[in-house]
Specification:
541 residues; alpha/beta; nine-stranded parallel β-sheet; six-stranded antiparallel β-sheet; binds (2R,3S,4R,5S)-2-(hydroxymethyl)piperidine-3,4,5-triol
Amino acid sequence: MKCKIISVTIFLFCLQKLHAQKSTTLLPRLEKQGNHVQLLVDNKPFLVLGGELGNSSASSHAYMRPIWPKLKQMNLNTVIVPVYWELIEPVERKFDFSSVDTLIKNARSNKMKLVLLWFGAWKNSMSCYAPAWVKTNTTKYPRTLDKNGSSHEILTPFNSNNLDADKRAFVKLLGHVKQVDVTQYTVIAIQVENEIGMLPDARTYDNAANTAFNQDVPEQLMSYLNKNKDNLLPEIKSIWEASGYRSSGKWEEVFGKGLATDEIFMAWFYASFANELAVAGKKVYQLPMIVNAALNRPGAKPGQYPSAGPLPHVMDIWKAAAPSIDLLAPDFYNPDFKHWCDLYTRAGDPLFIPEIRFEKGIDAKAFFAFGNYNCLAFSPFSIESTTQPEKEPIGKTYDVLEQLIPLITKHQVLGNIRGFLIEKDSIQKDIPFGDYLLTVHHEYKMGWSAGARDSIWPLAGGLIIAVAPHEFYVAGMGLVITFAPMVNNKKAGFISIDEGRFENNKWIPGRRMNGDQNHQGRHVRIPANEYNIQHVKLYSY
Ligand code: DGJ
């Protein structure tokens, strides 16, 4: 009998171990492959073809009901969606996760993943999602003060009650997600807060903040700066250099006097706060964690824009203070998409776009982002606002990109992929790619489409993947690509170009694209109103 009990115990122990192992392997996670970071979901490299919901949509199950089919029609594989502190903890320490459960249930039944946005202490600088018991007790949960001593509805990060209350709810949220989701992994990442940023001054002037401002720069930051002196981003490096690379001292001694230092100081404390949440949350459930930024308007001074969030010019401060935050992410409402993508990736970081304005041109930008950067996520904001989901260009783009996820993620790591973003008159000439030089221009330049006579042309975009030295997949819309071999005096000819689809990772060719479709063998072309993939084989003569 005793023997039987022991064997059953051993069996159960092994079963548990097996389950634990399985769970660890399947947890959504970020993994480094060479210089690249991959997001693994269900153990496979994954790209978030997402959409972020408008702020209030997910607060009502009934309101959400007609939205899910729309998201499906736009081929989203992930919904980026807020979860609200005020609804989750309406009464102090009494938690209600029904809103989260409903989201998870509906995401699963629509075969989608979720990225949850923790609308906790801060949402677009403000603390409007703090529960009433926090908002109304300003003695226990103090606010920031501006230079004139006037308070704002922004919880100060210099107060441990604020941190403890926010952290406790965040940890409970992760515990709950783990409990309901650890075998299915519907939730693949969590954003800590939303667009943290200081207003209307570059820093807060509450008493605790003033005290911290007159203390030495924390040792952790100084040692990060010293250790990474040669690799610091230029913005922080030049500020530190101007003060003679001082290795200790008060904030204004190390970084000089001015708004830039106020912002650095604030960034350190915001990032440390976010990091505390991430550390505590990951102890409970280790999901990838993101912090997003409202990009600053060029020319605006700290305080005039939401300052001290994870912006390019204070990225080093965020990295030093918040090592448990995995991704610093830009929200795109500014022009000059490429410029900001370059800034966010210049230190070798992946690109995660939780928000981009839902407007014309995002189809081209999505192709460009996944083709040109180590991009893990793309997600127009207020995606449910469309009235014609079946016609949305982003839906057609996602249909193409979803088929290509295995190829894109494989070749992002190998470096055999490029993206293009083409405006009306821009020609990108002689782009080196493997054995070839590529030239890419807008399809309207051929003058064949009626739209070519319009004064405004739609943005065109696409990507190319080299699967072998003379074999490529091209995807996108509105592009013409020509190939020239690197070898002098040789020309490139097409053996074949096939339009087609990937079904279950298998290439199913459709039309053979020859004659007028490749201008009698001169180029690869995807018309501006089409979204497709073409398989290209070349030879030289
Ligand atoms: C950026 C914020 O992160 C979103 O929550 C939303 O407020 C949009 N701005 C509105 O444009």
